[in-house]
Amino acid sequence: MEETMQNTTEQRIQTAIAASDLYQLLAISLQLPTREITAGLLDGSLAEDVLAIFDELGFPAHLQEDLKTEFSQIQQESKNQEELLSDLRKEYTRLFTHPQKSQIDIYESLFLFNPQELGEKPLLFISPAAMDAERCYKKAGVIRSKEVNEPGDHMATEMEFMMFLYLQKAKALQEGNQTGAERREEEIREFYDVHLQKWAIDFFGRCTILSKHPFFRAVGKTGSIFMEEMLPTYK
Length: 235
Description:
Layout: H1 2-29, H2 35-42, H3 45-57, H4 65-77, H5 81-97, H6 108-111, H7 115-118, H8 128-139, H9 155-174, H10 178-210, H11 214-234
C-alpha cells in the first residue's frame, strides 16, 4: 500500500512538472519571438520538448502527428535564423499586435468583448478581466514586476501564472505538504474556471486557423490539445 501511494505521489509530481513546462513553452511562444525560439525550432529541440511533454502527460499518440508536420515544415522552409526570426516577428505582429487591426486579441478582456452587449471596448489594465487576474496573482503570492507593461489578462501572462501554480504544486508534493498541494490545486481550478475556460480553447483554435506560419499553427494546436486534454483535471 505504501509503495502504491509513493508511486501515485510521484506520478502527480511528474504530471505537475510536465504541465508547468508546457505552460512555460506556451507563454514564451506568445511573446515577441526571440533568437532562442528560432534556434530551438531550427535544431528541432523545441519540437522534441513539446512531444516529450505530451508523452509525459499521457496524451494519445495520434494527437502528435499534426504537430510533427508543422514543426517539420518550419525546418524545411527556413533558410537561416535571421530570416526565420523576421518571419516570426512579422506574423506575431499581424496576429496579435497590429496597430490597426490584429487578427486575434491576445488580451482576455478584448478577446471576449462583444460590442452588442457592452458598447465600448474595455480599457486595458483596468478591465474587469485584467483586474481579477491581478487579484488571482496576488492571492497566490505572485508579485509582478513594475517593469512589466502588460495588463494581467495577456494570454502569455495567464500561461505563466499556470506554469507557476503547477510548479508550486509539484514542490509541495515533493515536500510532502498535502495542504500546500491542495491550495495550489484550488488556485489552478479557480483560475481556469474564472479565466481560461472562457477563452483559451477558442484563442488557440484561432491561432491554428488564422496563422499563415507553421510555428503559430503549431502553438495553436499545442494549446488546443493541452486545454482540451487537461479539462477533466480542472473539474
